[in-house]
Structures are given as C-alpha cells and as structure tokens.
Amino acid sequence: MNIINPATGSTIEKLTEDTPVEVNNKIAALIEGQKIWAKVPLEERVAIIIKYGDLVMENLDELAKILSLETGKPIQQAINEIKGAQNRIDHIQKDALKWLQKEIITEEGATREEITFEPLGVIANISAWNFPYNVGYNVFLYALLAGNAVAYKPSEFASLTGLKFRDLLWEAGIPKNAFGCFIGGAEVGEMLLEADLDGYFFTGSYKTGKYIAQKVASKLVPVQLELGGKDPLYVMEDVADVKQAAINAAEGAFYNNGQSCCAVERVYVHEKIYDEFVAAFVDEVSTYKIGDPMEEGTFIGPLTRADQMDVILSQIADAKNKGAKVLYGGERWGDKGYYLTPAVLSNVDHSMDLMKEESFGPIIGIQKVKNDQEAFELMKDTAYGLTAAVFSGNELRAKELVEGLPTGTVYVNCCDRVSPNLPWTGRKNSGMGVTLSYMGIRAFTQPKAYQLRG
Ligand code: NAD
C-alpha cells in the first residue's frame, strides 16, 4: 500500500496490508488479551491513558509532521489537532471513575440492587482520516478505558498515524494484545466485519456507514456510526459585528480545507446584511495562504484525497449551470499535489448539489434569506443532522430557532467545534449512537443488573 503525500502526489512510504491470516491471528490475540485487560483496575487503566497522553505530547513535533505529510493538513493545524485531542484525556481523568464504577441503587429492603458496567469485549474501530486524533480518541481511548480490546483500523489515508497510536499505547502500558492496528483499506475493513466481534464503531461516510450497519446487523451487537454532514450556518441581521461574523464563518467553512464532519457546509444570511457579509467573507478568504502544508502560515493545504477535487469541481460546474456566481477561487492550484483554491459562491439555491450533498472540501455557497422562517426551512432541508449554527446578537431568538432543528449539536455564535463534555451524536444520515460526555464513557459498556438477597 503506497502512502502518498497529497502535497506532491509522491509516495512517502510503502506499507503491507494485513492478510486474512494476519487479521484472524490478531483478532484471536485480542480475544485473549481482553480477558486480562478487563481485570486491570479502572484507576490503573486511567493512569495508562494519561501516560499515553504524556507520550503523545513528548513526541508532538514528530507526530504532527507525520500527520501533515500523509494527510496534507497544514502543520499548525496538525499541532492544534494533537494538542486539542488531549481534552479527551482530561475528560477521562475527570469523569471516568464516576461513570464506570458500580452504582448502588438500593441498599435497604429485602433485595439490594446494583448496576455494574462491563466491557463489550473486542470491538472494531474503523476510522476516518480527517481528524484521526479526535475521531480515533473518541472511540479507542474510551473503549480501552472501559476494559475492551480494540481492533483499530485507521483510514488508509492516515495509516502512519494509526501505527504511531499503536506504538505509543503499547509504550504507555496497554498490553499488546489489547490494542491491534489493522493496516489496509476497504478489504481489511471487510475482514473485520466478517469477524465475530462484540461491537462496531465506525467513523466515515454515510455510504460506508450504512453498508456496515446492514452487514453486521444480524450479529446483534452494538453499532455506532459517526457519519457526514451538510451543516448550515445562519447569520441574523442583528449580529454585533458583521465583519467578525464573516471571519468566523469562513474559518468554520475552510479550516482543515473544509474536511471536517462539522465544517460549515452552507451559509444563509439575512438580506439586510447580505452584501456586507459576502464582501467581508470574500475579503477574509482572499487572505488565506495556500501552499506547502509544512510551511508556517499555510492555512490551505492540499486535499487529502485526489478524487475529492473532482467532487468539488463538479459541484461548482453544476452550481454555475444553475445560475450561481463564483466570487472567489474554485480552481486547481500549482503544478503538483491535490490543491484547489477555496471557492466562494453566491446566487445559490437548493436545486444545486453544493447546497444538498456533502462537499467535504474548500467550497461554500452563501444564500440570501428574507427572514428566520425561510432560514429555518432551508436549514432543515437536508438528509443529514450533525450540527447547525446561528450567529445573532440575541441568544433567545437564536435558541428559539435552533431548538427546532433535527441535529445532534446546535451552536450559537460559534461553529465547527466539539467538546468532550457534551454528547457527540448525529441524527438522520449523520449517524447513530453517542461518543463523548458521560454517555460516550458508557457507550463501550453493557450494564449488568444485580438483585441481591440475604
Ligand atoms: P470512508 O467511509 O471512505 O472510510 C472510512 C473508513 O471505512 C476507512 O477506514 C475505510 O478504509 C473503511 N471502509 C471503506 N469501505 C469499507 C468496507 N466496505 N468495509 C469496512 N470498512 C470500510 O470515509 P472517509 O473518507 O475516511 O471519511 C470522510 C467521511 O467521514 C465524511 O463523510 C465525514 O463527514 C465523516 N466523518 C464524520 C465524523 C463524525 O464525527 N460524525 C468525523 C469525521 C469524519
């Protein structure tokens, strides 16, 4: 398997994909390892995860370089991601004992009642490449914490990072047979689906997620899917500062080249401030430095996958055919690598793919709306339900609007962010199940009810 540098299109390294025999051997080892790992006291498991976090920070520069090289993420954003993901470890340190320890429900009466939270067993974590630290940690750290063994399959676009997770987890004290890293693409993922595992935790596209849910349905084990989004942002006319709103919206759309599950994917702006907002938005985007992800100050690097350039260019062509105006960017950039200049389009509407299909790249459509009701209807007009944001000077007005939206997360005056204290969950085609928060701590457990007499 060739690991490609998206900034140049050249091969960085060659890895060998796991064969079916290797996959089966690794799974057999995990089944044995899980039994031992589950007996390690919870406090010790927490301490090992904290140690892992320390090792990551000690190796920050090297890890950021690897992440940047294989995904094209600008180096500063790679550093931000790695440092930011430490908040999952802080959350585990703060809350794990509280939510995983035995709960005593009744101590009096003929029958005493208790609940314990047992691990599921060996779980598969089939993961994505766009934020491998964040989305990986949401699953594998919390699964290990609860006493599971993890069959982790990093995306084929973030395999070097996945191997580093494995090495540092082992170094921190996770037994080698409690965490396995499976190298390969869809074929190796399929092997995990064929295996007899105790849970399937997937982060990736709607198409693959739906396929996985159907494929493993008859196993009757927990399945969680963290999938894509077409996340809207509505800017009300009462925002305190239109220019600042445009700067924040642009960052929400173009950070990590728009390759975030909760990136702002479409913008609606009240007609009273539309022209001012659009001008400020284009001004801001025109300041973004595009180029070598290793160079300090680069904000837009290459896309991670070559194919996604065609998706973006075809969304632009479709939108133009239907009357949209390209105000900025939307063209290939440079003579090597997978670069597109960030595209800003106006005169857009919901007949265009750009406003309906996940773009997952450096493109945004900005649509004018007459009032909150129109914005609300447009925001809801999607098959996805991950996040939605409103910028406003009036929290009550903004909250009234977001309350009615069928998304797992709503933002007021912020966007494109994840907090470990809150449940991370999608509705409709954005997935099912929960990671993060106390619910995400328990997501990797099964409760056992004790009824104790005498
Ligand atoms: P993808 O679906 O192409 O791949 C995800 C993983 O599935 C990879 O590891 C891949 O090798 C594996 N896979 C592919 N086919 C498989 C099969 N048949 N059987 C088993 N495994 C298979 O998605 P991607 O391109 O890696 O990620 C981008 C998508 O992920 C976007 O839609 C994005 O919105 C979404 N995402 C969602 C969240 C979230 O928290 N909701 C977070 C990050 C990314």
Automatic annotation (TrEMBL):
A molecular-function term among this protein's GO annotations:
oxidoreductase activity, acting on the aldehyde or oxo group of donors, NAD or NADP as acceptor
Which controlled-vocabulary keywords does the entry list? Oxidoreductase
Q: Which residues form the Aldehyde dehydrogenase domain?
A: 2-449
What SUPFAM superfamilies does the entry give? ALDH-like
Q: Which Pfam families match?
A: Aldedh
Cite the InterPro entries for this sequence. Answer: Ald_DH/histidinol_DH, Ald_DH_C, Ald_DH_CS_CYS, Ald_DH_CS_GLU, Ald_DH_N, Aldehyde_DH_dom
Q: Catalytic positions?
A: E226
The entry sums up its family as follows: Belongs to the aldehyde dehydrogenase family.
Name of the protein this chain belongs to: Aldehyde dehydrogenase
Q: What is the originating organism of this protein? A: Cyclobacterium amurskyense
